[in-house]
Each structure stands twice: as structure tokens, then as C-alpha cells.
């Protein structure tokens, strides 16, 4: 039995597809298929059920999976230990991030990572479904590290390190009837048209939950992928938005008060999967991102009167 065969097996299971597993491992699909068949022959057991659409585990595969993950994690830890002695950390870190990162100077963290650990490759990507897609990809092994907000159903499978937490405010156009007010309730906003992020984004989940708690409903007319676009639509009178303070640029902002308002706190966390050892390269990048977040938080606190 070879480590590569176990790597093929775990990738196929986590991706539930041979093509995606091959793409993740940067090999041809035939190599993955042949490697898994060889492993099954050596173990004298079928490990996965193969269909035209998806792959699922057999009983033997379920028994092997946690041990295969442990074996691969131990092998990575051994390689990391030797690398550190012989010239530093190396490898690849697959990092996923939400579309906007207030108070996190990610380019600075990545720049330092490149200078301190030039043999580490960082693959940075976004997910169209926001935080929930990032959480799903972490849990499935398609990412090593992620910066996300609300992880959704996959959250229990992740280790979350809080980086920052900020309140959320209502943003309106200068001509909006509420523009002269200092605060508004969610009930007052029930008839307004909203600009918001798509379902699956952390900010959207928080606002939806606040309205549900308040026993109110709302209509989202415009969905956008970043805060800058949301602000542009709001400024032009096409709707209102409830955004984290760090996103809300200068303009009329109101506190949201009353039932449901206690839920309007947006947080950002650094996440890894519980069922995998992060590895030295992932740990190093995580430490740099955490340090960047602490530095920005300290600067903001010093600037606050």
C-alpha cells in the first residue's frame, strides 16, 4: 500500500467524483482510477460504489477513511518536521476568502508569507456561494484554510478562530425618509426594498435571521457580491441595506433597534477542518493572518476617541 493510493482514495471520497479528485491532485483521472483499483485489490475489498454521477463509500471504505486521513496527516507532519530542519517550510496552502475583508490586510499577510517561506505556494480563491460554500469546501478537503463569516450547516466540522466582530448598521440614500433619523426598527423596514448579498453569504444570513427573530419579512430586490456595489445601489435610491460597520462608507447610517437587533453582529473567523491536521505551511499562514488582524484591531482601538 502506498501513501499516494490513500491520497487518491480520500480525494475521491471527499470530492465524490473521480474527475474533481484528479483536478484537485493535479493528475490525470486514469491515474486516480487505477490507483484506487490497486488499493482495493491489495485490501481485497471494494471501497467505493461507482455510479455515473457520484461516488459513495462502502462499509469497508467507511472503516478505512478515518485511518487513511490519520496516516496522511502523520506523513505530512513527518515531512514538515524534516523540511523545517533542512531549509524551511514548503508545500501548498489552498486559501478561500469571502468577497470583502474589512480590517484584514490580506495582501500584507501573503507578502510576508512569501518572504518568510518562499517555498510555500498559496492558492487564493473566492466562492460564489460565500461563507457557506467556503465552509463546505473546507469540510470536504477542497480548501486548507478559509476566512469566512457564517459557516452554516458545515460549521460543526470546522475549527473557528475569531478574528473580529463588528455591529451592523442600516444604510440609506440621503433622500430616504429615514435619512434624518438616528435609529430605526426592523418593523419600519418591512415595506422597504433591500440590497443585499446572495443567500449563503454571512451578512445575508445574519440579516435574514434578525428579521425572522423580529417576526418580520423583507423583500431583497438586488443581490450583489461585494459591499461597494451594494453602497452604489443604495446611494442611487434603489434600496436600503444593513451592512457591517466596516463596509458602510461615509453616508447616512442608522442604528437598528428593537426586536431582532441583537442578532445584527457580523464576525469574521479563520477556519480549518477538524478532521485534518493543518500542516506547517497552513499553520504559518494562519498565524500571519491572525497577527495582521490583531494589528488592525489595535490600530482601530487607538484611533477611537
From TrEMBL:
Keywords: DNA-binding, Transcription, Transcription regulation
InterPro entries, per database record: HTH-type_LysR_regulators, LysR_HTH_N, LysR_subst-bd, WH-like_DNA-bd_sf, WH_DNA-bd_sf
Residue ranges annotated for the HTH lysR-type domain, each copy included: 1-58
PROSITE patterns in UniProt: HTH_LYSR
Keyword Transcription found: yes
DNA-binding among keywords: yes
Domain of life: Bacteria
Protein family (similarity comment): Belongs to the LysR transcriptional regulatory family.
Name of the protein this chain belongs to: LysR family transcriptional regulator
